[in-house]
Structure formats: C-alpha cells, structure tokens
Amino acid sequence: MAYLGPEATFTQQALLSDPDLTRLEAVAMPTISDVLAAAAGGAVDLGFVPIENAIEGSVTVTLDTLAFEADLLIQREVVMDVSLNLLGTPDSTLEDITRVASYQVATAQCRNFLLTRLPGVATDAANSTAEAARLVAEKGDPTEAAIGTALAAEVYGLKVLAEEIEDHPGNQTRFVAVSRRGIPAPTGHDRTTLVIFQRADRPGSLLTILQEFAARAINLTKLESRPTKKGLGDYCFIIDLEGHVDDELVADCIRDLKSKMAEVKFLGSYPAAGEHGPSVRRDAEASWRAADEWVRDLRNQIRR
After folding, report:
1. CA-based angle 221:239:10, to the nearest 5?
2. H or E element: which one contains 124?
3. Do 96 and 162 form a contact (C-beta atoms < 8 A)?
4. DSSP H stretches of helix in the chain
5. List of domains in the chain
6. Cβ(75)–Cβ(179) under 8 Å?
C-alpha cells in the first residue's frame, strides 16, 4: 500500500489507526499524485491519501485525480482527529522564527496563529507536513520551522514550539484507500461517491439531480461542484451519499441518473467511518420494496 510520506505524516498516522491496513506493507511516496499513479498503474495494491479536511474542505489533487484522471475505486475511509504543531530545531524559540514550511492545506488551517503570533513570517510549501519537518531538521536553521505532527518532532529530532495551532477546534481529516478494482460488500453503514456530469448548464439542472435522491429518501453527506477542465462555467458535481450500490434504492437512483445525465462516474461504495446513521434509509428501502412488489403484481395481471 502506497501512502503520502515520508515517515510521520498524518496520512501514516491514519493508516496505522486501522488494524486491517497495518497488515499491509506500507510504501511511502513523496506526493499524493505519486500515490494515486502507483495505485492506478498497479505498482501497489492500494493507495492511501487524504481527501477532505474539516477546516479547508476537499484536498483538490485527490478529488480531481479520482474524478478526471485515474480509474480507481474507494475501498474504505478513515477519519482522524488532527492537531497541528509548530516544530523548530532544538535551539530555536518562537521569537526566532522567520520562515515556516508545511503542506499547503496544513498551513491554511493555521492562518490565525501565523497572523497573530508570527506576523510577517514567510511560508513555504512542502509535499507533506513530515517532509517539511525533515527539511527543517536537515537545515538546522533556528529561524525556520515546520507545521506538523508531534510524532514528526520525535522522528526528526525537532522541538515543539507551539501546540494545537490550528484555527478551529475539532479539526478532522478524512482519508481514503483506493484500488483499481473491486467494490467492498455492503455493511449496512456505507457511503457511495459519484461524479455527475450535466448534459448542459441550464436553470434547474442541479435540482433535477437532487430530486432523484430526495424522491428515494437518500441522504447526501457531501455535495461539491468542480470545474471539468473543459472551459469556464463547465462544472460537474461530486456527491457523497449514504448507502451502497447493492441497496435497491441507491442502485435505482444511479440507474436513473446514468440515463438522464451526460455521464456518471462511480467512485465506489465502501464502509463509512463513524457511528451508524439513522434508520430513515432502511425504512425507505422497505417502502420501495413493497411498492415494487405491488407494481409487479399489477403487471402480472395484464392479459397478454
């Protein structure tokens, strides 16, 4: 399994929190693109990458690669609490810092801290939080720091200059494991991800899509528009919904969308993280099944 490295990234911590994933041989790669390319090309069986953060939203390189470039299916998701720290060399202090490096999404989660505690500090982008920590350790410059994990401080011999510097409490990141083939069996607590491309941008086009879910009492947990890369104003919708393609209602919904939209790309049905959702979908499934049997009985009465 490839993951965003090097050692001590949040991605590595997330995969280590899942007992099933820890059984696999883990291969650190320098960028998210490298991880997804390795999984799509068959160099590894699974890729493991961040896809969404509670503060900054989607990790666009992951989302766009899955939506437009790679043919990969999500196998599972892992949600992890994220706490960010400012890491410096053993002889540095907070007052010494003039330059901070980290993964761009992590830096963005600490805007207020940087503005109020380190006004005017220069920021550099790194491929990951752990890569930033490694570079700071290698340079040994007391005026440079990294935003990363407490584990990275231990691994690379750095000092935690400030703890929990993210702007909002309750920060979490969602990670996904992806592979070239296979849909996990339904568990009763699943999520499905779709990319829906419109035939044309016209009034009510989003409503047309949403009505398909509303009519079947399917709950959406995420709805996001992304440019299709074909031109200004050309957007698709990326949707997470409760349920599995093996569920009759979900399958029926996807079938109708496929027949009405320009294209529907299926990104997977997989076990959802967290506690089980409400019973609304199960009740709707039972009602749909009863209605389907009723219609089937009526059709059986037709004189042929």
Report:
1. 70
2. strand 122-126
3. no
4. 10-16, 19-22, 32-41, 60-64, 104-108, 111-117, 129-139, 150-156, 205-215, 248-260, 280-300
5. 1-82+166-182 (3.40.190.10), 85-157 (3.40.190.10), 183-304 (3.30.70.260)
6. yes
Tokens of 116: 């109020």
Q: What is the pLDDT of residue 275?
A: 63
- Residue 83: both structure tokens together: 């706490």
Which of helix, strand or coil describes residue 188? Answer: coil
| pLDDT score, position 294 | 86
What residues of the chain score a pLDDT lower than 50? none
Provide the mean pLDDT of the chain.
Answer: 91
Cβ atoms within 10 Å of 194's Cβ, excluding its own = 25
- CA neighbor of 191 nearest in space, from 236, 246, 260: 246
Residues 168, 174, 175, 177, Cα dihedral to 10° = 180
At 118, the amino acid letter reads L
52, burial (CB in 10 Å: exposed 0-12, middle 13-18, buried 19+): buried
Residue 134 near residue 6, CB atoms below 8 Å: yes
- For residue 156, what are the CA distances in angstroms to 13, 87, 140, 144, 149? 15, 10, 11, 14, 11
**How is 65-87 classified by DSSP, letter by letter?**
IIIII---EEEEEEEEE---EEE
| pLDDT for 299 | 87
Q: pLDDT at position 284, please?
A: 63
